[in-house]
Amino acid sequence: GILVVVYTDRTGTVEKLLHHLKDLLTRRGHDSVNSLHYNVCGAEDQVFHIDVVGCVLHMRGDLTPQPLHTDKNDWLLWNGEVFGSMLFNLDDSHNDTDMMLKALSACDDNTDLILDTFSSIHGPWSMAYYQHKSQSIWFGRDVIGRRSLVWHLPHN
User: Fold this and answer.
1) Cβ(124)–Cβ(147) under 8 Å?
2) Of the candidates 81, 80, 99, which has an alpha carbon nearest to the alpha carbon of residue 91?
3) How far apart are CA 79 and CA 126, in angstroms?
4) DSSP structure string for 51-93
5) Which among 87, 76, 15, 10 has a CA at the least distance from the CA of 49?
6) What are the CA-CA distances from residue 91 to residues 13, 62, 74, 129 (Å)?
7) Could you read off the pLDDT of 53-112 as tens digits, one per residue?
8) pTM for the predicted model, two decimal places
């Protein structure tokens, strides 16, 4: 399972929620559990806290702990299977997460290329991708919705 929580105030309530959600995810994918915390400065110097959790149930290829990140500080949480893509070749010796992050990083900050990369995937998937250069979080799932993606935007 994958989890991304973005918030502005780090309170005890947020800490409890993160701990509870991480416990639930750990039950789903126990081969690798990792979490990262980022701070991103937004407009008017407002700080956004981003907590990222990746729990992997290893299926094929090399075990790739998540979130996977690049030397450009981009990261990817991937829950899916790539059966094929028109934009890159599949290699059984590599993990789908690794291949997706390489393909996305090659897009630089070109929005159309990023969208084309996701649109080209054949197979079930959901993901969260952070691009450091543009300070953007991309999230989505395959058009049929074969991998769950739940999100919540509070009113406050």
Assistant:
1) yes
2) 99
3) 5
4) EEEEEE---SSS---SSEE-TTS-EEEEEE---EESSS---TT
5) 10
6) 43, 11, 22, 21
7) 888 877 666 778 889 999 998 999 988 888 766 555 666 566 788 888 988 998 888 999
8) 0.83
